[in-house]
Amino acid sequence: MADAEHNLNPDSPVIYQITVQGFLDKSRADWFDGMAIEPQVDADGRSVTKLTGTVVDQAALHGLLRRLYDLGLSLLSIKRIELD
After folding, report:
1. Which domain holds residue 55?
2. What is the CATH number of the domain that holds 44?
3. What's CA 30's distance to the chain center, in Å?
């Protein structure tokens, strides 16, 4: 069932925040199309990394997720950032 209020176009740029378990060095930003990389410690004391930035389309998002998988980083969350 389609949601009439949300017209998501899989071929348009979207800002995402992707959180993975583990530490990803900021120098790897070029591997992730210039996304901001924020290594941090979560409330449970675990090392996590948040990547935030514009993803041009769904194919690019899949590519980013594949790179994270290839690095052995466990995906914790993907959040689509809504712009006002």
Report:
1. 14-81
2. 3.30.70.260
3. 14
Number of structural domains in the chain: 1
Identify whether 18 is part of a domain: yes
Task: Let me know if residue 67 belongs to a domain.
Answer: yes
Query: Per the domain annotation, does 51 fall within a domain?
Result: yes
DSSP 3-30: -TT----TTS-EEEEEEEES---GGGGG
Tokens of 69: 């998988």
DSSP 83: P
Which residue has tokens 């675990």?
A: 46
Whether the predicted model's global pTM rises above the 0.70 cut = yes
- Structure tokens that stand for 8 in this block: 């998501």
Per-residue pLDDT of the chain (84 residues), as tens digits, is 444 445 666 667 899 999 999 998 888 888 888 899 999 998 999 999 999 999 988 899 999 999 999 989 999 999 998 765
